[in-house]
Amino acid sequence: MSLVVEGLSVEISGRQIVRNVSFQVADGERVGLIGSSGSGKSMITKAILGLLPEQATVNGSIRLFGEELVGIGEEKMADLRGSYMGAIFQNPSDSLNPVLTVAQQVSLPLRLHYRLSKGQRQQRVESMLDEVGLDGHVAGKYPSQLSGGQQQRVAIATALVTSPKVIIADEPTTALDAITQRSIIDLLTCLVDRSGASLLFVTHDFAVLSRVCQRSYVIDHGDVIEGGNTQVLLQQPQESVTKELVKAARTLTLHVSNHGQ
Amino acid sequence: MRYLVRRIVLFILALWAISILIFASLRILPGDIATVMAGINSSPEQVAGLRLRLGLNRPLPAQYGSWLKDLVHGDFGFSMLTGRSISEQVAARASVTFPLVGLGIVLALVIGLTMGCLAVMARSTRLRSFCHMLALVAGSIPVLWGGLLLILLFSRGTGLIQIFPSQGFPDTGWRRPAEALQTMALPAATLGLVVGASITRYTRSALNDIAGSGWIDMARSCGMTRNQALMRVGLRLTLPQLVSVVGLTFAEMITGAMVVENLFALPGLGSGLITDIGNRDLIAVQSELFMLAAFFLVIGLIVDLLHRLLDPRLKESTVTGRGRS
Amino acid sequence: MWSTVEGRFALSILLVWVFMAVLSLVWTPQPLWATDGQQVWQKPSHNHWLGTDGTGADVFSWLMAGSATNLLICLLTVACAAALGILLIAATVSRSALVANTSIVLVDALISIPTVLIALILAVPLGASVVVIVLACGLGYGLNLARVARPQALLAARSDYVIAAQVSGASAGRILVSHILPNIMPVVAVQLSLSAGSSVLAESGLTYLGVGVSSGVPSWGHSLATSVKLINVYPLTALWPGLLVTLVVLSLNLFGDSIGDAIDPQSNSALREAA
């Protein structure tokens, strides 16, 4: 198992944000977490990455390839982030460092974890940019000079440049338009599969989820209320929250396809 | 670019408006300016002579016009009291004030950045709140009283630990740097502590705000620890605002500098200006006020342009003012 | 606000301040001008709670009377700053691009003029007076308020609510009052209480420089300045006015922070992320 979460609870300033959540991600598997906004799904990814605010208290267990992550301290977490775990966030314009060029941004995990020569690093960055479908001339640009889709490609390149074994994507397509969304999703799944990594994909949109993940968990008010094969969830939702999410995805997808014609 | 042009045009307009304000405030004095300047014991002939010499018998617009013309040519006139040229007098005083303010700012930055970072990054939460409280208290101390406390603690003569002189500036000036620097120690420390407190508070609140941002999460997800990310990304991203704050602090610091110069009897721009006002040396006051205002307008201009230069997003400037963001 | 230690501390001090200021108008422990040449530089005693100064005047009574002057300066300064600041913000969110841009750049240009310089310019014709402090600080803090509240004001002005209100024909004044001001209220409240603190500090500085409160009128700045002159002889008399000013300014700053937390729970970054 790449990632095992057991009985995870998160509390911030007296508020219980995540309650007793358990799920697993197998090697090379793409697993989804779905829930409406405020359901606590983002906090689960933050707990795994060790990015929770300092006031948060975490209980339960998170194991990455058998190693316990809860309570190991910021230094050790930092060693894992960017080498064993890569992360992609919702809004690239809020996460890509505005004062770094694309090349500097993508090479950051390499510089933090590996002693490479400048040439080796440059070579790796160039091939990574090529893999995410960005031209070489983008390398010297700043994020503000790129489109939203291009920015998210840079973020994907940054997350994957060290070939981490687990990728955590928190609503990576929500800030994008429908067409860009599709190309980014396809790029992400393709690159993750090619590198053999596992993917934990967080979204509120069943339409996106069904395209990415074999298996999914539905989160509501910090609880896992339902889980299983994505297609089964989509066709036979049991819980009312799941039904709502499925319905929302159907109407949206219909709306989008009508709009497209 | 459009901002630059507009900003420079406004800079010139502001300079002009200030010159009118200064001129007007000195001319609406109750009574005749020449009588005021000549003093109580002067004969009517002396007053008339003074009026003629200064061109005070001409209509106000003409007086203003010739003053403005002289200013543009860099001619600031002569002091009535000492007879020295005002630019010379100002230069002599600036050789005290500029090092004082410069030392003060450097000290304030060192204290402010260190304490501000500690208040956000220190491992123990106790140390964090201690730094915060210390900055809050130090920022509430009047400069005058702060200087006083330092005198009581460290001055030769009255202090508990008698190391630094508390009065005056050596006549030899900067030709004997060690002596001059010694007299600067307590005044600069006063300024540095008080201003450092406000920089601490600003740095703390800016870093706290950015600590929860996506940029810090992103840097950490690449492999930095929280503190590494705050130092390498957080500080850089708050730099534009920090520059603005330091610029504004600089403007506020002049009040402190004037008080400190008076308290420690340093012959600087501030105490000089106060003396000139007291002596009714109005031609000197007029030019000195204008030079100081112009200086701060230039500082403001530089700070604004630097802010824009440092912010590659070139968004609407989210400038933060003094103190809290 | 009462829920935190800091809030309780700040509120108590401020209430005592207001109470003392009002009380001093009708009663002080010793009459202000009852100076006794025999009783200069007295130590604190039953008659003179904080001792006497070099003229034999009662230090506590003068500080108490000063609290009224300082409260007046504080309130007037805040009122001036609020009026100017809100006027400038109204101009910033004006629909006329010329007015908006001019006000933005004007604030940027003028904000770098130190308040002490304005005070000196005003003091030449007006002489030392409360008016000089109020006008100079009101101008400076008003500009600062306009600058600090600008981002939020612009954000509010571009929000869907305001655009909808504009489309439905609401007047600019109505939009300002019902949509923009409520949105910037937290920033304005915090900034104004910080300005109140700064005005107390400014009073002591300007009065010491001879351009603040005119001599003969009791104020904390005067008490401080008087004691400074004889610091070498009687260091302890300088303790009280300085301590008092520090306490009051600290309270005003803490008060501002708690207002910020009370009005705007979003400033708690942990909760903001969790929301």
From TrEMBL, chain A:
Localization annotation: Cell membrane
All copies of domain ABC transporter, residue ranges: 3-246
Pfam families for this protein: ABC_tran (PF00005)
PROSITE patterns listed in its UniProt record: ABC_TRANSPORTER_1, ABC_TRANSPORTER_2
Cellular component annotations (GO), alphabetically ordered: plasma membrane
Source organism, top-level taxon: Bacteria
Database matches in SMART domains: AAA
Membrane-related topology note: Peripheral membrane protein
Keyword field: ATP-binding, Cell inner membrane, Cell membrane, Membrane, Nucleotide-binding, Translocase, Transport
GO MF, any single term: ATP binding
UniProt xrefs under CDD domains: ABC_NikE_OppD_transporters
Family, per entry: Belongs to the ABC transporter superfamily.
Protein name: Diguanylate cyclase
Biological source species: Bombiscardovia coagulans
Automatic annotation (TrEMBL), chain B:
First-listed, main subcellular location of the protein, grouped into a coarse class: membrane
ABC transmembrane type-1 domain location: 94-307
A Gene Ontology term for the protein's cellular component: plasma membrane
Compartments it resides in: Cell membrane
SUPFAM superfamilies for this protein: MetI-like (SSF161098)
Membrane-topology descriptor: Multi-pass membrane protein
Listed transmembrane segments: 100-121, 133-154, 180-199, 242-269, 289-306
Keywords in alphabetical order: Cell membrane, Membrane, Transmembrane, Transmembrane helix, Transport
Family: Belongs to the binding-protein-dependent transport system permease family.
Record-given protein name: ABC transporter permease
Species per Swiss-Prot/TrEMBL record: Bombiscardovia coagulans
Lineage, top ranks: Bacteria, Bacillati, Actinomycetota, Actinomycetes, Bifidobacteriales
From TrEMBL, chain C:
CDD domains linked: TM_PBP2
Location of this chain's protein in the cell: Cell membrane
Coiled-coil regions listed in the entry: none
The UniProt record lists the keyword Transmembrane helix: yes
Domain ABC transmembrane type-1: 67-256
InterPro entries hit by this protein: BP-dependent_transpt_permease, MetI-like, MetI-like_sf
Superkingdom of the source species: Bacteria
Signal peptide span: none
Record-annotated membrane-spanning stretches: 9-27, 70-93, 105-124, 130-149, 233-255
One of the protein's GO biological processes: transmembrane transport
One Gene Ontology term, aspect cellular component: plasma membrane
Membrane topology, from the record: Multi-pass membrane protein
Name of the protein this chain belongs to: ABC transporter permease
Naturally occurring in which organism (per UniProt): Bombiscardovia coagulans
